Amino acid sequence: MQTAWNLGRLILLATLWGCAAPSAVSERPSANATRPPDLGPFVPTPMPVVRKMLELAEVNGDDLVYDLGCGDGRIVIAAAKQYGARGVGIEYDLRLCEEARRRAEREGVSAFVEIRHQDIFESDFSDATVVMLYLLPASNKILQRRLRALRRGTRIVAHDYGIGDWKPLHTEVLWTRDAFQHTVSVWRVGE
Ligand SMILES: C[S@@+](CC[C@H](N)C(=O)[O-])C[C@H]1O[C@@H](n2cnc3c(N)ncnc32)[C@H](O)[C@@H]1O
Question: Are the C-beta atoms of 162 and 139 separated by less than 8 Å?
Fold first, then answer.
């Protein structure tokens, strides 16, 4: 019920944002597209959920953590601050990119964090050791093929929505103080 409400929340926001509902997300931007396909509106992951995502990914100082659709950069910034990991945030909204860069600067981790103003479809995240996702379910599914091609052992952690029919290695459910339920799932490429 709560998960259905969370999904409704993202889809409603997507509609209000003036972007595509999941059924309208296509694998490639159309030749006429004036903007990249929306894979999910900006809904930030609450910090307790961010911490759980990093914990389940077992992030450490050797990791290169990507957040596909990084919003204000909070996940890659926390990975750098808490674990000394390097992070790359991919985000197509320039305003959010600028905000993420300012946050990284303010938190003293701008040397560890790169924010790329880019469409996820155009981005290369093949050197990731950890990939974070908080996108619409249809978007995760579209990315499935590229995620499968990552190096063996790469950890993938998703907030709320799964990745097609992949069975996670582990799932945890958290409640935040606003009474929302959040699901965090982890996979390892090749396992
Ligand atoms: C649900 S928010 C998640 C933000 C952040 N990852 C977090 O968990 O706090 C999804 C983000 O993906 C971005 N996004 C959606 N489609 C994208 C695309 N094709 N390329 C890059 N970013 C995209 C949105 O602008 C938004 O900031």
Answer: no
